[in-house]
Amino acid sequence: MSSISATQIRTDIEAIIRRIRPDLRGEIREADRLRDDLGLDSLHSMELLSEISEQYRVEVDPENLQDVRTVGDVASFLSALLEQR
Amino acid sequence: MALSNRRRRQTPLASDLCAEKELLPTIINEVRTFCGTHVDGTRIDSERALGADLLSGVGERGWFGLTVPTRFGGSGLSLSGATRIISELAASNGSLGTCVGLHSGLAMHALIHIGTPAAQERFLPELALGKRIAAFAATEPNAGSDISAVRTRLSEINGKLRLDGSKCYVTNGGICGALTVLSQSPGLGGARAGHTLVLVDPRTPGVTVCREENKLGLKGSSTVSIVFEGVEIPYDQVLGELSKGLDYAHQALSWGRTFMAAGCIGSARAAVLDVVEHTRQRQQFGRALIAFPLVRESIARARAEVYAMESTLRLVCMLADSGHDEPLVASTMLKVLASEGAWGVVDRALQLMGGTGYMEDACMARRLRDVRVTRIFEGANDVLRVSLAASALAWPVAQFDELCRDAERSAEARAWQHTCTHLASTISALKKLWGVRLFEQQIIAADLADGMIFTFSALAVLERMRAEADGDLAVARLALAIQLERANANLTRASTARETSFTELLAAVAG
């Protein structure tokens, strides 16, 4: 079972997003779409996943990312990877 | 390969394509004749303008309407047909090819495909005649390769849309009559950080077109900054849906890259013709230059390079014309291939022409200056390579197995199959080693991307060999051999671990 709390995961993801898009203002919500609400294009999203992979030492297979569209999806995806570890 | 997303869109009818195929040689001859008598590259560069007479002549002959649907007075050509004509225009003059190519491709794509009927009626007939010229404004001082970072803003105030901000390096901007602008549009269309494409008439109050830039090349092509201050945008000039502008921009860029590649191919082809003529006539040490093995090899390689670029353009156009919606990955690979290839061919041609090549009168100097920017605009090649490598990570490896199994059994096909297998195994190995962190390993990503590009180009050559039974087999085989050699070299480099000390040295010297 992962020892990292859902809140910590959420905070870490938000910090990474703000590093990638320092111009983002306002709250980042679970339901925010990466592209439409946070302005992350495909390269930004790859950067996000790369940093997550590096920070958490998890392997992210891009083939499994089709349904990852929101901040909440990213958090759930990461939680699932951490559970498997 | 996942060369495109698989949505189907309206395609040219087979009967239209047949008619077009019959008509194209006549149009191409007409372009060559017109350019031969009306295009003066020296005049264009010294005046830093194509000139009203030249633009008018192009417009009268319908060449601004290549991609405009026939119901709006255009020719409605397929991508294959339109790019062939752009190639001819660029062979004559890079600035002319850029003006018409950008107008026909990137700048009009959104209006043609997702514009409202009212906007289409208002603009397309005049665009078809060249009475308006189209431009596309995305780049800003803080947003080049990262176009999502644009700050030009579309807001809705008291029931009206308003545009504020500025754009730089707008090609055709100083002579345009229809400007597609990418803006951020926070809060519009239900998206907090969406983007929207709008069509702007530059005569609208609040639009200021700034002075022409002084560029290294494409001196006859207009390049300006444009400022928007409280510009009112009619709702029917929103292109597509609010907040989806970034997707539309990428689709337009994908389309536009084929036209840009066509221009590169035209320039490269013209360079080969010039250098062959020069090396046949010029004598040194008692022989024509073309008799020397080094010269012969250079010319052979240049011909093969042009063949490979043409073949790849042909394949990408076939994909687009047969209904694959905006072949994003394929056109990106084509853009990198054609821009790098054209630079190499023209540079080598200038070298072979010696001192003569360095003089302005020989036109090779202008050609070299003109093609240089193609490695930068419409997506800097360095960034495109990283993007291509990232996209490959999401390809299902099973698709590769399918492609390789489907290959014919000719020697050439087996050679390609071997390289395709190499590509698949390299992607698998890199995914296993780095996963998404490959994104940070840009040197490896660049090698992988080049491996992908040359494998794709080799496939295009193979397809063309199959289709053109009476084609030039020798140049085709040489092109295939070179592309496969390059592909395998890049893939081997991508999957070979560099010495840690070497990468540390690189990091230390970079500062």
- Let me know the average pLDDT of chain B: 92
What is the number of helices of chain A?
A: 3
Q: Uncertain regions of chain B: pLDDT < 50 for 5+ in a row?
A: 1-8
| CATH superfamily placement of chain A | ACP-like
Here the CATH topology of chain A equals: Non-ribosomal Peptide Synthetase Peptidyl Carrier Protein, Chain A
- Averaging pLDDT over every residue of chain A, what do you get? 87
Backbone CA Rg of chain B = 23 Å
* Beta-strand share of residues of chain A: under 5%
Using the alpha-carbon principal axes, give the shape of chain B: globular
The radius of gyration of chain A is 12 Å
Net shape of chain A: globular
CATH class of chain A: Mainly Alpha
Secondary structure class of chain B reads alpha+beta
H/E element sequence of chain B: HHHHHHEEEEEEEEHEEHHHHHHHHHH
Distance linking N and C termini of chain A = 8 Å
CATH class of the largest domain in chain B: Mainly Alpha
Please specify the SSE layout and strand pairing.
The complex is a heterodimer of chains A (85) and B (511).
Chain A: H1 6-20, H2 42-56, H3 71-84
Helix pairs in contact in A: 1-2, 1-3
Chain B: H1 14-38, H2 41-47, H3 52-60, H4 79-92, H5 94-114, H6 117-129, E1 134-137, E2 153-157, E3 160-171, E4 178-184, E5 195-200, E6 207-212, E7 223-233, E8 238-239, H7 245-281, E9 283-284, E10 287-288, H8 293-321, H9 328-352, H10 354-358, H11 364-372, H12 381-392, H13 397-406, H14 411-434, H15 442-467, H16 473-494, H17 500-510
Parallel strand pairs in B: 1-4
Antiparallel strand pairs in B: 2-3, 3-7, 4-5, 5-8, 6-7, 9-10
Give an account of the 3D structure.
The complex is a heterodimer of chains A (85) and B (511). Chain A has 85 residues and is mostly helical. Chain A has a single domain, classed as ACP-like (Non-ribosomal Peptide Synthetase Peptidyl Carrier Protein, Chain A, Orthogonal Bundle), CATH 1.10.1200. Chain A is built from 3 helices and no strands. Chain A has helices spanning 6-20, 42-56, 71-84. In chain A, α1 (6-20) packs across α2 and α1 crosses α3. The mean pLDDT of chain A is 87. Chain B has helices at residues 14-38, 41-47, 52-60, 79-92, 94-114, 117-129, 245-281, 293-321, 328-352, 354-358, 364-372, 381-392, 397-406, 411-434, 442-467, 473-494, 500-510; strands at 134-137, 153-157, 160-171, 178-184, 195-200, 207-212, 223-233, 238-239, 283-284, 287-288. In chain B, the strands form 3 sheets. In chain B, strands 1-4-5-8 form a 4-stranded mixed β-sheet. Chain B has 511 residues and is of the alpha+beta class. Chain B contains 17 helices and 10 strands. Chain B is globular. In chain B, α5 runs antiparallel to α7 (245-281), α7 runs antiparallel to α8 and α13 (397-406) packs antiparallel against α14. Chain B is 59% helix and 11% strand. The interface between A and B is medium-sized, with 27 and 28 residues.
